[in-house]
Design goal:
heterotrimer; A alpha/beta (192); B mainly alpha (411); C alpha/beta (163); B: 411 residues; mainly alpha; three-stranded antiparallel β-sheet; 18 helices; C: 163 residues; alpha/beta; five-stranded mixed β-sheet; 3 helices
């Protein structure tokens, strides 16, 4: 059965309103930015004013992943696995210079931006960003959800192509290869 | 490119335990709310009792020490800031303490006092977060909010001083980035006289006689004096086990020799003792700041410009030829400093314990090797010992009392 | 600390050389005598192992050995410090472990092994601590580049379609 268009539009609007104002973050706090994330949740800045105070540490209950801090080689499979465990619809904020681009840590171990390996919706610059910047990012994401969201998450089926930076993956010499310490394929979700 | 499967965690150390079928293994972390940071524990459990705890770290290893070999003595201060990120100033002071020892620089009295004050402020903010987070994990969210409120005040002080509230990167070789202002001094006076004692008393009232908090920390994670020394513990963890070792007294650096303060010790060695030591240390830090802030000597903050060691200020760079030349000399990658070709270890008492840097110099502008002695790394090695025989609900209590900071742990 | 110097000179003679810089007093010890020297130092009051640092001296001015390992010891009663240095070389760099003397050496030695590949004989559990288990290089060696050899880009990409 096909709904009339005006009805579906109103449904989208209601769903977006609910989603945008109750984004539950999954704080993937690894480093310094995690402390600013705590400051954002604490008394002076109080992210509860924007409906995002319900920090849920279980990915199954969250719809917003806040990656705060640098992500290193050993951590990226964990990050991918947690991202896969979150239910749709879900969004990702990359907080701070390290998560967005590697920041000052242009070294052998640090992943140069998590957007190389998982999808990111909003980037927050700063090292670390001030709490106001993070709140601004949450507001921006709310606007994005209101503008693009659909009741049955059709917008995600449209965005299926990898949109991050050029992949620098290369075949390295057998004697220099490493075994990747984990793999998101081992996440509990079965893939065809 | 096909990728390999996940590496199984090496739990073969528990081979005799594996034979007992009732034991099971619980993976704790690396992304878990009670760890606050990224560390992983493999706990072998008998019911709720921990038989063996095997830590797995390195989930935040970002190559700090390799990066230090690529950056010069001033640039690396922005990196050490991010090491123990809840008290960044302590790291800066420690790094430049070691560098100044290598180059043989004697700081000006004003610089010594200012560094002492900001170091103690950072110690207060570190202990506040440690206690607040430990209370949060044990069910007391109010103490966390009170502690964080005070941290915001300290952030304000740092922002007035350096322009950045979180990672000030304030120290430089032979001095400071800029001199402090009178407004900064007033803010500290207000903080020490009014704001901090009230918040401290609030936290004391909330926790010191709180039955739940005491039940969950007393007698948990006991570290004896002998084990603490043998396993290289330092800072509040060592002092809570009854060893009065404090580098501020033992090897006085900066202005600590002039100031009056006591080393806080406890004989308990458990989580409660570590909590009490931190609470008292905050009070001692406030005492140090109160003395120092009234006695900041006048004069320059940087060592003499003729020594060719410090960055000249903007006005002399733009308006005098000597300043311009010196600026050029310090910033051209093939000039910079000419330290002696030797190696030196310099350590200070950071909030978490002895934070030292072992610097090897090859006579060029950047270190050949800058090894960090990270207190968190050494304290986390104690964890399996402290956890044995305790229940799984004691894991957050012990982790909170050790104050493990992942970036310092893994570097 | 003349007494420590005398003590070490009496017991070990030429196997221990003293040098000093600023307030650091260093004893360069022959690699095979390390455990004996450490035992003597511990009984002389240096009961606290503060740090173990590995150093790679590849192309360092006037260096004769490839790797150095520095042990920082402290006396918890008098707060004195000494530093003990040993040197090891390729192709098979190995030192005796001081784990039997100080339990605190456990993770410090593992870190030096992880970063430099220096093997500590007698260590009960010598495996990588910071880098992933499958990592084949030793990242703090001077012949390993700062930005690595591409390992950090070597992961699968998750797109919206897969998640």
């Amino acid at each position: 059965m096909k709904f009339p268009d005006f009805l579906v539009t109103k449904l989208d609007w209601v769903a977006n309103l609910a989603r945008a104002n109750s984004l539950w973050p999954m704080p993937f706090a690894t480093a310094c930015c995690g402390i600013e994330l705590m400051a954002t949740a604490a008394s002076r800045y109080d992210i509860a004013r924007f409906g995002s105070e319900a920090m849920r540490f279980s990915p199954r209950q969250c719809d917003l992943m806040l990656v705060a801090g640098r992500v290193v080689m050993k951590m990226i499979p964990v990050l991918q696995r947690i991202w896969l465990q979150m239910p749709e619809p879900k969004w990702c904020i990359s907080m701070g210079a390290c998560a967005s681009s590697g920041g000052v840590f242009d070294t052998y171990a640090v992943v140069q931006g998590i957007d190389r390996f998982i999808p990111v919706d909003v980037y927050v610059p700063g090292c670390p960003p001030r709490p106001e910047q993070l709140i601004r990012a949450v507001l921006d994401l709310q606007e994005k959800v209101k503008a693009t969201g659909t009741a049955n998450a059709r917008e995600f089926t449209a965005r299926t192509v990898y949109a991050g930076p050029t992949s620098l993956l290369k075949q390295i010499d057998p004697e220099q290869t490493m075994v990747v310490p984990g793999d998101y394929n081992t996440a509990s979700r079965s893939r065809s | 490119m096909p990728l390999a499967r996940a590496m199984p965690f090496p739990v073969d150390q528990v081979d005799e335990a594996e034979e007992k079928e009732f034991l099971y293994t619980l993976n704790f972390g690396p992304q878990h709310p009670a760890t606050h940071t990224t560390l992983r524990l493999m706990l072998t459990l008998d019911g709720e009792t921990i038989v063996k705890a095997v830590p797995d770290i390195g989930y935040l290893h970002s190559g700090f020490e390799k990066l230090g070999e690529d950056l010069d003595y001033n640039q690396y201060v922005t990196i050490v800031d991010r090491m123990n990120y809840i008290s960044p100033i302590c790291n800066e002071i420690s790094w430049h303490h070691a560098v100044e020892k290598l180059m043989g620089i004697e700081l000006t009295p004003r610089c010594k006092y200012i560094r002492t004050i900001i170091g103690e402020l950072a110690r207060i903010s570190d202990h506040l977060l440690c206690i607040g987070a430990a209370a949060l994990d044990l069910g007391g969210i109010t103490a966390f909010l009170y502690a964080f409120n005070m941290r915001e005040k300290i952030y304000d002080i740092f922002e007035t001083m350096a322009g950045q509230r979180f990672h000030p990167s304030y120290t430089r070789v032979g001095g400071l980035m800029v001199d402090v202002s009178e407004a900064w001094v007033d803010k500290i006076r207000k903080f020490i006289k009014d704001e901090f004692p009230k918040a401290h008393a609030d936290v004391v009232r909330l926790l010191n006689r709180n039955k739940i908090f005491i039940d969950r920390t007393k007698g948990i994670g006991v570290l004896t004096r002998e084990e603490a020394i043998n396993r290289s513990a330092s800072g509040p963890v060592l002092r809570a086990s009854g060893v009065p070792r404090d580098l501020r007294k033992d090897e006085p650096y900066l202005a600590y020799a002039d100031l009056e303060f006591d080393v806080v010790c406890s004989k308990g060695g458990d989580c409660l003792a570590r909590y009490l030591v931190r609470m008292e240390e905050m009070r001692e830090s406030a005492r140090i700041i109160a003395q120092a802030v009234e006695n900041i000597p006048a004069g320059p903050v940087n060592v003499n410009i003729d020594d060719k060691l410090t960055i000249p200020d903007k006005s002399s760079t733009y308006r005098s030829i000597e300043g311009l030349i010196q600026h050029f000399e310090l910033f051209m990658w093939n000039r910079r400093w000419k330290p002696p070709v030797d190696e030196v270890y310099g350590a200070t008492e950071a909030a978490n314990g002895e934070l030292g840097f072992y610097i090897v110099s090859d006579g060029e502008g950047r270190p050949w090797r800058c090894r960090t002695r990270p207190p968190s790394f050494i304290h986390f090695a104690l964890f399996p010992l402290l956890m044995e025989g305790h229940s799984i609900s004691d894991v957050p209590a012990v982790l909170g009392s050790l104050n493990i900071i992942a970036a310092e742990l893994d570097r | 600390m003349p007494d420590v110097q005398q003590l070490l000179a009496e017991k070990f003679g030429d196997a221990v050389k003293r040098s000093a810089f600023r307030d650091n007093v260093r004893y360069i010890v022959a690699t095979d005598r390390l455990i004996d020297v450490m035992t003597v130092l511990k009984s002389a009051g240096f009961d606290y192992l503060s740090d173990i640092a590995g150093i790679d001296y590849l192309h360092y001015p006037d260096a004769t050995d490839r790797y150095g390992v520095v042990y920082s010891l402290a006396n918890t009663e008098t707060a004195e410090r000494v530093y003990v240095r040993v040197f090891v070389n390729d192709p098979d760099p190995h030192v005796s472990s001081v784990y039997s003397i100080w339990k605190g050496a456990d993770w410090m030695e593992r870190e030096v092994f992880d970063m430099y590949g220096i093997v500590f004989d007698g260590h009960p559990d010598l495996r990588r601590i910071l880098m992933p288990d499958g990592f084949t290089s030793y990242p703090l060696r001077k012949d390993y580049p700062l930005r690595g050899r591409g390992e950090r880009h070597n992961f699968q990409i998750v797109t919206r379609a897969e998640s």
